[in-house]
Specification:
By secondary structure, the protein is an alpha/beta fold. It has helices spanning about 45-60, 100-110, 120-130, 190, 195-205, 210-215, 225-235, 240-260, 270-290, 310-325; strands spanning about 10-15, 20-25, 30-35, 70-75, 80, 85-90, 95-100, 115, 140-145, 145-155, 155, 265-270, 300-305. Helices cover about 40% and strands about 20% of the residues. A five-stranded mixed β-sheet has the order 3-2-1-4-8. The protein is globular and about 55 Å long. Bound molecules: zinc ion. Zinc ion (ZN) binds near residues 180, 182, 184, 187 and 189.
Length: about 325
């Protein structure tokens, strides 16, 4: 066995509700995953313990020992000081303010740990694995419960002055639009995220709108998932199709703004909404973006759906670890 065949990396996607860990070989092929609920309400120490446990479970799943792992990468949902590996704040993790996550995990795992913002890490994953680091400039947009993003400029992740660059979801698209979790109105996240799409559907149903979704899920639509929207659209539900297309239009306007400002070669769009609704979402997004960019700015620019799906976070985190230790 060549030395490189014995190298393993672990990528961790730390979310507000779940922790996903994946073990990768030296070529970054995914070997095994493990999942745990975050239990964020139990506090910082408990969550850090659970991350370490999830890493251990994933490593155990492929019959390896922790000491065979060369490095662990973590994508965390908030502002991260990447140099020190501290999570400065994380809106979906109560009590997370200036948490030395790198240090805490290194003590528990006895392995080198590297921490980045989750959307930056997802962008790094798509840039490195899907595009083989070829585009010099790339924008990643991830549409799920919220909307996040990351910027690769001149082949490097761009983090900005306060390490918060890439907050694409909080680009204001409609000044008098719906309220966003950040306190502003009309942010892209408040118009085009899964949360925004679901809210629009639920409000319309309350006002008497007919939809196949209520036949499928009952009147309160409590357990609605993005895949249900796809099913309804494919069965001919024009209302659901219209709501999804409206969200895709808003996302397209956001992409047009990004293209005007940054002129990236690639705009890659991922996240749970795209994974479930790529065919329903992407054509409208692309058309709207093309309709709104300044003339001449679109030449040679590709807007594409990411293929990494739910694994973008762990893949990017493994890329982060491999970049640091090799
Ligand atoms: Zn916002």
């Amino acid at each position: 066995m060549a030395a490189s065949d014995r190298e393993f990396y672990v990528g961790v996607d730390l979310g507000g509700t779940k922790i996903l860990a994946g073990v990768f070989d030296a070529q970054l092929n995914l070997l095994a995953t493990a999942k745990l609920s975050t239990k964020a309400d139990r506090g910082v120490e408990a969550v850090v313990d659970r991350i370490a446990r999830c890493v251990g479970d994933a490593v155990d799943e492929c019959d390896l020992a922790l000491k065979q792992v060369r490095g662990v990468g973590v994508g965390a949902p908030g502002a991260v000081d990447t140099a020190s590996g501290r999570v400065i704040f994380a809106p979906n993790l109560p009590g997370w303010k200036d948490v030395p996550l790198k240090k805490e995990l290194e003590e528990r795992l006895d392995l080198p740990v590297f921490v980045g913002n989750d959307c930056n890490v997802c962008t790094l994953g798509t840039f490195d694995r899907e595009y083989r680091c070829k585009p010099r400039h790339l924008v990643g947009i991830f549409i799920g419960t919220g909307i996040g993003g990351g910027l690769v400029i001149n082949g490097e992740l761009y983090e900005g002055h306060n390490l918060t660059a890439g907050e694409i979801g909080h680009m204001v698209i409609e000044v008098n639009g719906p309220k966003c979790g950040c306190g502003n109105r009309g942010c892209l996240e408040a118009l085009a995220s899964r949360t925004a799409i679901f809210r629009r559907i639920q409000n319309a149903v309350k006002d008497g709108q007919k939809t196949l979704l209520t036949d499928m899920l009952g009147d309160n639509l409590k357990d609605m998932r993005s895949g249900d929207l796809r099913k309804a659209i494919r069965k001919g539900d024009k209302f659901v199709q219209q709501v999804v297309e409206e969200a895709a239009e808003y996302a397209g306007i956001g992409v047009a703004n990004l293209i005007n400002i940054l002129n990236p070669q690639i705009v890659v769009v991922g996240g749970g909404v795209i994974e479930a609704l790529e065919n329903e979402f992407m054509p409208t997004l692309i058309k709207t973006a093309k309709d709104h960019v300044m003339p001449g700015t679109m030449n040679g620019i590709e807007i594409e759906a990411s293929k990494l799906g739910d694994h973008a976070g762990i893949t990017g985190a493994a890329v982060l670890a491999r970049r640091h230790v090799s």
